[in-house]
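QA checklist item 7 of 12: single-chain prediction sanity check.
[x] sequence parsed
[x] length recorded as 444
[x] structure emitted
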Amino acid sequence: MNDWFEAEQRVERAQQLSESHCFAEALSELDVALSINPNNALWHAQRGYLLEELDRAAEAVEAYQKSLQLESGDQDVALALGSALAHLGKLAQALTVFEDLARIYPDLEPTYCNRIMVYAELGRHERAEEMFYMAQGLDDACPHCFYHMGGSLFAREHFDKAIFCWERVLELEPGYIGVNRRIAQAYEAKGELDRARDYFLRELRDDPGNTDLLFELAELTLASGRLSAAVAKFEQIIELDPDHAAAHFALGSVLLQVGQPQAALVALESAAAVAEPGETLHGLDARAGEALLLLGQFAQARTRLEKAFELAPNDSRLVTLLGDALFKLKKSEAAADCYRKALAIEPSSPIAHYRLGLCLLEAGRPADALRHNLDALHTRTDFVEAMHAATLALLELGQWRKARIMLNRAITVQSNPDLLALQARFWRFRFRRYLNRLRHPFTG
């Protein structure tokens, strides 16, 4: 008799701890109670709830199943079991639970509501809509139904209809967790970034420490072109969660974009250091290689870029960067091969044409170099570096008039010391040729 009393006391204590959100301690108390009386269906159900709060959904499923074995007719436990199975991605099993329950209780609205979610996840959107309208016939003010229906519409890119459903959720339950975030995602998908930002901020007010939500807002800020603000937000995420690998990686990518290769490299290496086993940061070696290239560490850049190339051999920009590293290491032929590969992937790439032109000019093939620089200028008419290289090729070919025209064109677009130095050199070449003609008037 004392054991039964102790079990009841343990369950009461578990309830108090659960209300204080001390779920692990509550579970310990409940486990003691169940060791005394393992045939109490309600306690197994309560155990399932605690396990879900502790993100142990697989064990929660077992607890709910045990509860239903002891008392098969409990609607709430069956609904909890279906939801836990759906959370685990076991959608077919979840659907079976909800359908079995609906056959027994055809007027139980949550069986339809939950099936909206499951059918949407399975991509069976017509069935999701059917469940939605059947649920509406039983309860037209269920916020969960509108939330799940919004998800189905979003998946089909019906963004305005999805927003309508999610706004309806807010009307029915203003504090509904996650709905502002979904509305923000819909506006972002529509390209309405300012409205998306407003809804992300609303969600953050309810959940200010959510680093995943902050990360979405940072990415939105980046998409808006506000690079400095994006850097600040990624740094804020890292301050809250130093092991957030995606934030380190994104920070490194933005710092590289704004011309801070050293800081970018530090952030990228931090991302690699804190990444979870199996977590893939696509493009990390490519970005690290680019940073090293900008820092003049060409051998290390080559190593990282070759590693990245193995994973993405059809990335034109990556192959071009590898060519740049090889060119800086005085391996012009290998660099030229990279630029040719880049052009095979993207025939109109002005950078690859220009870089290949440099290799050919160095190899003593000014005519071929000129052709590639002119191809670069055909795609990008203001490409000053290609104009400079084309001028050098024309000088090598002795085409003085065309070289002067090309050089003047370059200086008109952007006057810089290299071009002005070439201009001075150009007139010296012309003057030497004039003197040579005076001395040898009958030569070509």
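[x] summary fact logged: The chain has a mean pLDDT of 92.
[ ] second reviewer sign-off
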